[in-house]
Amino acid sequence: MLVDSSAALALLNRRDQWHLAAGAALKQLVDRQAVLIMTNFLLAETHALLLTRMGRAIAREVAELGKPVDILMSADYMVINNLIIPEHADWNAVFAVNSMVIMYTDQSEYADEISEDNWYEVLVREGVQYGHSEPDMDPCGYRSVLLFQLAENYYQKEGLNQALLAARSSSAWRNGCPAFERRRSRR
Asked: Of 49, 83, 117, at which residue does a domain stop?
């Protein structure tokens, strides 16, 4: 039987509304000696869900309920900066960071034109397809959406955020944190 990430998350998170039901289902499957399978893809998805959902939830428990912890780690250091410091901690050790990038090859449409000054114009062109990870499942996803909002302000282009969101390909949601995908199109 294939174990979905939502079932694994429910098993691992006692606060999940399906925790007890997932535990009972797992017990029945084990009693029947069912073979449980979880693909690498689903394992990675479960990991991303745990980091984003439970990390934020635990930070809120510390900040709002005063739950004591010795160490709080999060995939998004801003969770700690925004919810924990200065009331519950004095400092935050950032040990890894990400950058938002647009990745393409020399074969990509408009590869010879795209730059830090016009990337948003290229992404909204007809025939350009791109995507990012699911905002509710991965920090890179919500940072992509946030980047579009910030770009609208930075470049002073009213409606840019909505144009970028609307221009995403129909399969825009990706698991993990891929670079924007650009495919060659016909002119």
From this structure: 83
Q: 92 lies in a domain? A: no
d(CA 20, CA 35): 21
Closest C-alpha among 182, 166, 173, 164 to residue 120:
164
pLDDT in tens, the chain (187 residues): 777 777 877 777 777 788 888 888 888 888 888 887 877 766 667 766 666 666 666 677 767 777 776 666 666 677 778 877 888 888 887 765 666 777 777 888 888 999 988 999 999 998 887 877 777 666 677 778 888 888 888 899 999 999 998 888 655 554 444 433 333 333 3
Q: Domain range spanning residue 64?
A: 5-83
Asked whether residue 44 is domain-assigned, the answer is yes
Reply yes or no: is the peptide bond before residue 68 cis, omega within 30 of 0.
Answer: no
Q: Residue 149: exposed, middle, or buried by beta-carbon count in 10 A (0-12, 13-18, 19+)?
A: middle
To the question of pTM greater than 0.85 for the whole model, the response is: no
Whether the CB-CB separation of 78 and 154 falls below 8 Å is answered with no
Residue 9 · residue 47 · CB < 8 Å:
no
Question: Taking CA 161 as the corner, what is the angle to CA 122 and CA 79, rounded to the nearest 5 degrees?
Answer: 115
Residues 58 and 26 in one domain: yes
